[in-house]
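Subject: Sanity check before I submit

Could someone independently write out the structure tokens for this chain? I want to compare against mine line by line before I put it in a report. The sequence has 279 residues.
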Amino acid sequence: MQRMIVTLDVDRIVLFEFTTDHTQARNTHQVAREGVPRLAREFSYDQLPWYLGELCAGRSVVLSDLTKELPAQAIAEREFARERGTRAVMGFPLMVSGVIVRGINCVRVHKARVWSEAAQNTLRLIGQIFAHALAEQQAEMALRESEERFRVVADSAPVLIWMSGLDKLCTFFNKSWLEFTGRTIEQEMGNGWSEGVHPDDFQSCLKTYAEAFDARQPFVMRYRLRRHDGEYRWVSDSGAGARKRAVLFWGCLLLESSHCKTLFPEWCMSMIAIDSCRR
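---
Independent answer below. Compare away.
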């Protein structure tokens, strides 16, 4: 953004986001010429009710001389500009997925400025690029946080849990699974987990899984899985589809003679609820 100060020949550029309750605006990115004061990190709508109201309504604000062009109702804006020496302003609302989430503006201090159409288009374009990039970044962060919460809950479950990706290869095993098999997650990843399936159950197990995966249908299957001490135990494996871009199936395994049996339906329902929140 610093280069845009020179390109647009302005004194300050600010990119800000609106709070969902429309009580505050937060400056997330700000650059200014040397000697030009920076704005506060946050400011309330009461400080700029007309200006922020215009942007929130989807209307641009392009004023060449605030001393002459501010409307009569913009009393707070007139005082705000006087205190900071702001003379000209150009501001645009920024939309992401059809919703106004941010705004961008630039100002000239102490001198009026006629804003050309080219300057307006440039600032608007830069704002949209920033808005979409930041929205994607925030979505990625939210996804990572959601998946971390999912893994914490999965690791506390008294059942064996796995997840697979779009290529049918497994991408996650919870703590209970790894403790039962005595193997590392690196060993189990992909198709590694199938090494623990009893040879007599191997083909039917993979066939059921592959057919359910291709049909995007839930499944339940029984097979013997090797425990860490080499003994095979019968398990009931219930799998269900998910719609996350990186996760297609997840499942819970119940040790058929385990005391966890009574907890199995409750935990599965909990995992389904959590999975729904991640979509």
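---
OP: Matches mine. For the report I'm noting this point. Residues 157-272 form a domain with the Beta-Lactamase fold (CATH 3.30.450.20).
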